[in-house]
Design brief:
Strand content: 5-15%
CATH architecture of the largest domain: 3-Layer(aba) Sandwich
Radius of gyration: 20 Å
Order of helices and strands: HEHEHEHHHHEHHHHHHH
Helix content: 40-55%
Number of helices: 14
CATH class of the largest domain: Alpha Beta
Distance between the termini: 47 Å
Shape: globular
Length: 306
């Protein structure tokens, strides 16, 4: 997991600069969420093309944690980059997205929503033997609680896809390159929204860097500690963090993914990573996530006869 952050930063800034020039753009635009991945991308973009050519869109909605948008605004100011705050709540209301989520009741406190979501998540896992996230990587035909999962998927995925639309709208209005913030850990297990703001972009600077390596790069780039140390969260459903959804910490996930990429078998990984408290069951579950999400990283088309 060790990287040389200075060399990586220089390389990634050169990568961003190269594609801005090759694709004849006049700057970059990115979504700034208040999380570590987008913070690193913002810092790299500033280093690559300068603060005056870097635009960050901060796009909260009514389920978002207010702290996230505040952190994003403060970071944009510290970096000296341009930032626009766009509340996407009215657009989601127009589309009827909030009606899909049964806990969206006017008098229901947010804290209670968070507790209920976490309980529902645990209940599903106990009853089915897999997390709702894992179940949702494929189709839902004949699956238990499929009606709930379908509505939940439509509800949270619409948010990231709307953000993608706004990024491209601003990018095309101002001839900017759209820069995504997905990292290797998320990409390999399908922890992203297909055609959402992290998966649909012109370039993905962090796509070959694991989450734990992103954090190391963030420290080198002087991203504020409050952003690096906070629990990573997609911030689209109340009460759900990345590691609750994935049912594993990024530290363990990244070690398993690295071993799988090297072609190691499960018994070899168990033996090598036993000291890290990683079990065979966890390795098998991560392997399943990689396999089930493969379709999200591909486009399919038929082969035509000659």
């Amino acid at each position: 997991m060790e990287i040389k952050p200075e060399e990586v930063a220089v390389s990634l800034e050169a990568f961003i600069r190269q594609y801005v020039e090759e694709l004849e753009r006049e700057g970059v635009v990115l979504g700034l969420s208040g999380g570590v991945d987008s913070a690193v991308v913002a810092a790299l973009c500033k280093g690559a093309v300068g603060p005056e050519k870097t635009l960050a869109l901060i796009m909260p909605e009514k389920d978002s944690n207010k702290e996230q948008a505040e952190d994003a605004l403060v970071l944009a100011e510290e970096l000296g980059i341009k930032a626009r705050l766009i509340d996407i709540t009215p657009y989601l209301k127009k589309l009827g997205v909030y009606k899909l989520f049964p806990l969206n009741k006017p008098l229901l406190p947010k804290k209670l929503k968070e507790i209920m979501v976490r309980r529902a998540y645990k209940y599903y896992q106990k009853k089915t033997g897999e997390t709702p996230f894992a179940a949702s990587l494929g189709g839902l035909k004949d699956k238990d609680f499929s009606a709930y999962l379908k509505m939940s998927n439509a509800y949270y995925r619409a948010k990231h896809r709307l953000r993608m639309l706004l990024l491209y709208l601003e990018g095309e209005k101002e001839n900017r390159l759209v820069v995504g913030a997905a990292n290797k850990s998320e990409w390999l297990v399908g922890f992203f929204v297909k055609y959402g703001c992290d998966a649909a972009a012109d370039i993905m600077p962090l796509l070959n860097i694991y989450k734990t390596q992103v954090r190391e790069l963030a420290r080198y780039l002087n991203v504020p500690g409050r952003i690096i140390d906070k629990a990573p969260s997609p911030d689209i459903i109340p009460g759900l963090t990345d590691e609750k959804a994935l049912a594993i910490s990024y530290e363990k996930l990244d070690l398993i993914l690295a071993a799988l990429e090297e072609g190691w078998e499960v018994p070899e990984i168990v033996e090598a990573l036993d000291a890290a408290g990683i079990t065979g069951e966890q390795i098998i579950e991560v392997k399943k996530l990689v396999e089930k999400s493969a379709h999200m990283r591909k486009l399919y088309w038929p082969e035509l006869g000659t």
